[in-house]
Amino acid sequence: MRTPAELTALFRAHGRKVTAQRQCIFSVLQGDVSHPTAEAVYDAARRRMQTISLKTVYQTLHELAALGEIAALDLGTGMARFDPNVEQVHHHLVCRSCGRVRDLHVDFSALRVPPGADAGFEVGEAEVVFRGLCDGCRKPGTAARAAATGPAPASSG
Predict the structure, then answer these.
(1) CA–CA gap between residue 49 and residue 67 (Å, rounded)
(2) For the CA atoms of 29, 69, 57, 126, what is the dihedral angle to 10 degrees?
(3) Strand 129-132 relative to strand 91-95: parallel, antiparallel, unpaired?
(4) What is the mean pLDDT of the chain?
(5) What is the per-residue DSSP string for the chain?
(6) Cβ atoms of 70 and 1 closer than 8 Å
(7) Average pLDDT over residues 36-59
(8) Is the torsion defined by CA of 10, 14, 19, 24 positive or negative?
(9) The pLDDT of residue 120
(10) What span, in angstroms and rounded, lies between the C-alpha atoms of 28 and 52?
(11) Rounded distance, CA 108 to CA 4, Å?
(12) Domains annotated on the chain, with CATH
């Protein structure tokens, strides 16, 4: 992901308003590999700037996605997740218990739709999501508790 200063310049170059709140969001996203939800970005930004609104966070995240600076992901965790790693093609590991998301860097260049199975689609890219249990949820008792209570809300970590 670009630096907050580069994102500021990009927003200005595209005629978008740059506010202290947006710069705070840029800063929160910098180096975040957790695939945060908008609510997680809001919580982190609010710790730095009390005047930020959830609406501003959503608008800024969607504008960053429209500019191709982050990816908006629907990984089946119940909430949209935002991935600042758009420089490298990668896939995702998703914990079915706690909702944790991690990048998976594997060469899937050989992944192809079998001939005749494309149903008329012109396939341009593939996205692979592996689901399972993260190391924290595999610890004794953790997965059993999660199974008894249902999946936890998606976390930012």
Answers:
(1) 25
(2) -100
(3) parallel
(4) 86
(5) ---HHHHHHHHHHTT----HHHHHHHHHHTT--S---HHHHHHHHHHH-TT--HHHHHHHHHHHHHTTSSEEE--SSSS-EEE---SS--EEEEETTT--EEEE----TT--PPTT-STT--------EEEE--HHHHSTTHHHHHHHH-PPPPP--
(6) yes
(7) 97
(8) negative
(9) 86
(10) 12
(11) 31
(12) 4-73 (1.10.10.10), 88-149 (3.30.1490.190)
Return the structure tokens found at 120.
């008329």
The CA-based dihedral angle spanning residues 55, 60, 66, 72, taken in that order and rounded to the nearest 10 degrees: -70
pLDDT at 154 exceeding the cut of 60? no
Q: Which residues contact 32 (CB under 8 A, 6 or more apart)?
A: 84
The residue count for the chain = 157
